[in-house]
Design goal:
Blueprint (H helix, E strand, L loop, with lengths): L2 H9 L6 H12 L5 H14 L3 H12 L15 E5 L7 H10 L5 E5 L9 H5 L11 H11 L1 E5 L6 H12 L6 H14 L4 E8 L8 H17 L3 E8 L7 E2 L1 H12 L5 H17 L6 H13 L2 H12 L18 E6 L4 E5 L2 H13 L13 E4 L6 E2 L4 E7 L2 H14 L1 E3 L12
Parallel strand pairs: 1-4, 2-3, 4-5
Antiparallel strand pairs: 6-9, 7-11, 8-10, 8-12, 9-11
Helix pairs in contact: 1-3, 2-4, 4-9, 4-10, 5-11, 5-12, 5-14, 9-10, 12-13, 15-16
Length: about 425
């Protein structure tokens, strides 16, 4: 088999066989193929696409390029959740203890953030003492004992995807739906879950900018999951504006705690409830939405989900006292509110711009080697359609540098749009 022939086949619109895809992925992972040949193939895929079968074969080849997590020692059906990324997306911190409190084991491997999207692992590291690097034995034992564990993604999970993504990033082939779908699903399959619930974000703060593209990606990932024997469900949710009110690592942990106490962002809770319903159904705990919703509500209102979050923190070495005292989380040196000088409605909260402002404050990474400032970020006073009364904050900035704080306030005033007239709240969940 020659890579030259396979590039030409894809260039001319042909369908690559399972054997050919396995050859390509195995050879590239082992450094037998040069980057320029793999780049040529990626560009051919970018222009000609891939069939669902090809995409499924590519997904499995990348999943099996490294370690497949064996979670068979964990009791029950393991259901993973994945979000395609956005701003103030704190769903894992709320959803994992909520679902675990209902009796579904949550075995989650998460990543760090790059750019304007925050990583779950970075957020968890805001909690003093919290360990995210766990051995496999500790990971499995914690899930069997407490029903929940979250760890950083192993370096040997889908190594082919890591290599290929780095190449896509510098060859303008990132935004190919088959390549996005296979990248996401290869990692989810390698992580060992029995079922997968997907949250596909669409809008200015998401990778997918329009609903049609988000639907294509969503449908393809569901097809891949089901083709390889993983029960898979997807939802498409709005990322034109941030999901929660908090943008920044320790701020988002504090917001997750508030939501688990029955307060905080209603939008964040709504998305968590929607995803949680499907996680309970995929796990076989319930058969219908109403019963699943009832179980999740009971776990929330009874305080069992909050207790589960405490157990999870303590089990991984964290200081569980943060649940009762959020001042134990990293605190910024400077805090300044931008307050309304009259009653106004929030008309627009551009997610991407707000994410970039938070990143420039230090809450995110421009490069992989950047060190995140866990204490900084932005707290919004409301969401699009909300009214802000005179003297109340439109947004609050948390910073450790006065110059950056002043810059952030100035830029927030430029990008957040206000109105004297009523503004309708946008849709949150599309499908």
């Amino acid at each position: 088999m020659r890579m030259y022939d396979l590039i030409m086949k894809k260039r001319d619109g042909g369908i690559l066989s399972k054997e050919e895809i396995n050859f390509i992925i195995s050879s590239y992972t082992k450094d037998y193929l040069p980057d320029y040949q793999m780049s040529a193939l990626l560009m051919a895929i970018y222009f000609n696409g891939m069939s669902p079968g090809e995409t499924a074969d590519l997904t499995m080849a990348m999943a099996y390029s490294g370690e497949i997590m064996d979670l068979s020692n964990i009791k029950g059906i393991k259901v993973d959740k994945h979000s395609t990324g956005g701003v103030a997306d704190t769903t894992t911190l709320v959803l994992a203890p909520l679902v675990a409190a209902c009796g579904v084991p949550v075995a989650k491997m998460s990543g760090r953030g790059l750019g304007h999207t925050g990583g779950t692992i970075d957020k968890l590291e805001s909690i003093p003492g919290m360990r995210v690097e766990l051995s496999k034995e500790e990971f499995i034992n914690n899930i069997n004992k407490y029903g929940i564990a979250v760890m950083g993604q192993s370096g040997n999970i889908a190594p082919a995807d890591k290599k290929i993504y780095a190449l896509r990033d510098v060859t303008a082939t990132v935004d190919s739906i088959p390549l996005i779908a296979s990248s996401i699903m290869s990692k989810k399959i390698a992580a060992g879950a029995d079922g997968i619930v997907l949250d596909v974000k669409v809008g200015r703060g998401a990778f997918m900018k329009d609903l049609d593209s988000a639907k294509k990606l969503s449908n393809l990932m569901v097809d891949i999951g089901n083709l390889v024997g993983k029960k898979t469900i997807a939802h498409i949710t709005n990322m034109d504006q941030p999901l929660g009110l908090a943008i920044g690592n320790s701020l988002e942990v504090a917001e997750a705690i508030e939501v688990l106490k029955g307060h905080g962002s209603k939008d964040l809770l709504e998305v968590c409830m929607t995803l949680g319903i499907d996680m309970l159904k995929v796990a076989g705990i319930v058969k219908n939405d109403d019963k699943a919703k009832e179980m999740l509500n009971n776990a929330l209102k009874s305080g069992i989900a909050l207790k589960k979050f405490k157990e999870f923190i303590k089990a991984q070495g964290g200081d569980e006292r943060v649940v009762d005292d959020i001042t134990l989380l990293p605190q910024a040196k400077f805090v300044e509110e931008w307050t309304a000088d009259k009653e106004v409605y929030i008309k627009d909260l551009p997610a991407f711009e707000l994410g970039l402002i938070a990143m420039k404050l230090g809450a995110g990474r421009e490069r992989k080697e950047d060190v995140i400032d866990l204490s900084v970020g932005i707290m919004l006073g409301g969401k699009t359609g909300d009214v802000i009364k005179k003297g109340y904050p439109i947004a609050t900035v948390y910073a450790n540098n006065k110059g950056r704080l002043d810059w952030a306030i100035e830029n927030l005033k430029r990008c957040i749009v206000l109105s004297d007239e009523f503004v309708e709240r946008p849709s949150l969940i599309y499908t």
